[in-house]
Amino acid sequence: LCRLVPVSLGLAWRKRSRSPLPFSLLAQHFMKPLQRFLKPQDIEIIFINIEDLLRVHTHFLKEMKEALAAPGAPTLYQVFIRYKERFLVYGRYCSQVESASKHLDRVATAREDVQMKLEECSQRANNGRFTLRDLLMVPMQRVLKYHLLLQELVKHTQDAVEKDSLRLALDAMRDLAQCVNEVKRDNETLRQITNFQLSIENL
Fold first, then answer.
1. What is the pLDDT of residues 87-106, one digit of tens each?
2. CA dist., res. 149 & res. 151, Å (int)
3. Residue 88: DSSP 8-state
4. Among candidates 122, 132, 142, 128, which has minimal Cα distance to 102?
5. Which residue range is the domain that position 137 belongs to?
6. Residue 89 belongs to a domain with what CATH number?
7. 179 lies in a domain?
């Protein structure tokens, strides 16, 4: 399969593999420094399960590199299929990231020292190009785009057997995206019900 990967897509993956994972940036340059400024419950609300995502993606990226470089390694489609279940940790993250961003805004607005620390962390992490709020959205955007990458691979693959194999991976990532979106919708419905119940109780 490696030889059938379009050059542009292979280069895109290699470029991505050389850049810091957004999960690593979040954990190393924001979460750890902010632990000295925020309560543990604030850290948990804002960063959700980012450390779980970091662990999963560190292994995923390693296997993707091997699939692109080593003839005897598992193929791309096998890597994607194997990680379908592991990527379910995204469900919790994606369903809570909007609430996490709102909580971050409230904390930063209420405390000037936190706002200053956020700016310092952003400067150290990426020269101030992206805020913590920006980076919190990246994991969700990434997981919902994997099926688009696989669509391109299917389109550019000529070998019928390889194309069928890639379609299996494409179906797996489509299922994952659907699952993540369903978890997001379910959590949003629960939030709406909770808010409605609270509004009734406050009448």
1. 999 999 998 999 999 999 99
2. 5
3. G
4. 132
5. 7-202
6. 1.20.900.10
7. yes
pLDDT tens, residue by residue, 46-68: 999 999 999 999 999 899 888 88
Answer yes or no: is 2 within a domain: no
1 within some domain: no
Token pair, residue 194, equals 């909770």
DSSP 38: S
For 175, other C-beta atoms within 10 Å of its C-beta total 12
pLDDT of residue 75: 82
The stretch 71-77 carries a mean pLDDT of 71
The type of residue at 185 is: R
Cα separation of 151 and 169, whole Å? 10
Q: Which amino acid is at 172?
A: A
Residues 146 and 56: their CA atoms lie apart, in Å, by: 15
Tell me which residue has tokens 């420094």.
Answer: 33
Element (DSSP H or E) covering residue 64: helix 50-69
> CA–CA distance from 101 to each of 87, 132, 133, 188, 196 (Å)?
22, 9, 6, 15, 22
* pTM confidence score: 0.79
Ramachandran category for residue 127: left, alpha or beta (phi over 0 → left; psi -120 to 50 → alpha): left
Domain count, the chain: 1
Cβ contacts of residue 53 below 8 Å, gap of 6+? 23, 89, 90, 93, 139
Residue that the structure tokens 């978890």 belong to: 183
Query: Residue 198 domain-assigned?
Result: yes
